[in-house]
Amino acid sequence: MDDLLHEDELWAFETAVAANKITFLDHETYVYYSMSNPNSMTATVGMKNIEHYLIILTKKLEMAYAQGLYSKSEFVERYLKNFANFTILSNVCTKDYSIFRKFYKAIGELFTKYFPGKKEFLVPPLLAYYLYKMKFDQTFILYGKFPKYINPLLRL
After folding, report:
1. Are 103 and 87 in contact (CB under 8 A)?
2. Which CA distances in Å does 149 have to 84, 104, 125?
């Protein structure tokens, strides 16, 4: 895809899927400075960034489905859910409800399409909106409250 923001997110997943073997090291090999260039298009997360993250999630889910990755490892399932939760929904919950609802429903439909047995992102959108705000939106009055209830409801 031409002009895709955050293409490294997709490239890293494609590379991992194609690899025959992956080895993990017990130390950092790369330090990512997200704010190293404040003029960078990816330094702040705007609607275009979030829309591109949704495109990337779609591609990752397509690949995971085509390769049967959900049945091979719980790690892949957790990774894809975390990408949806922490990269997309954590940012979009700071926007208007109509925007959150659009993304939340799209993500729910994607997970239902590619992995229907998993039943992910099925909390009613309005309830999900407030739960995500409580979890991620630091400007929300109930931010940080009731984590022992919110995390299980959001399946984090």
Report:
1. no
2. 20, 20, 17
Q: Length of the chain in residues, anyone?
A: 156
For the chain, domain boundaries = 7-154
Using alpha carbons only, what angle is made at residue 129 by residues 124 and 134, rounded to the nearest 5 degrees?
125
Q: Do residues 118 and 111 touch, judged by C-beta distance below 8 A?
A: yes
Report the alpha-carbon distance of residue 145 to residue 47 in Å, rounded.
Answer: 27
Report how far residue 133's alpha carbon sits from residue 143's, in angstroms, rounded to the nearest whole number.
Answer: 7
Contact predicate 64/56, CB 8 Å: no
User: C-alpha distances in angstroms, 88 versus 3, 68, 121?
Assistant: 19, 24, 13
CA neighbor of 81 nearest in space, from 55, 126, 115, 32: 115
Amino acid letter for position 53 = Y
How far is residue 155 from each of residues 26, 58, 134, measured CA to CA in Å? Answer: 28, 20, 14
Q: DSSP for 45-63, please give it.
A: --HHHHHHHHHHHHHHHHH
Structure tokens at 97: 């409800």
> In order along the chain (156 residues), what is the average pLDDT of each group of 10 residues?
80 84 75 59 76 95 89 82 95 97 97 87 95 95 90 82
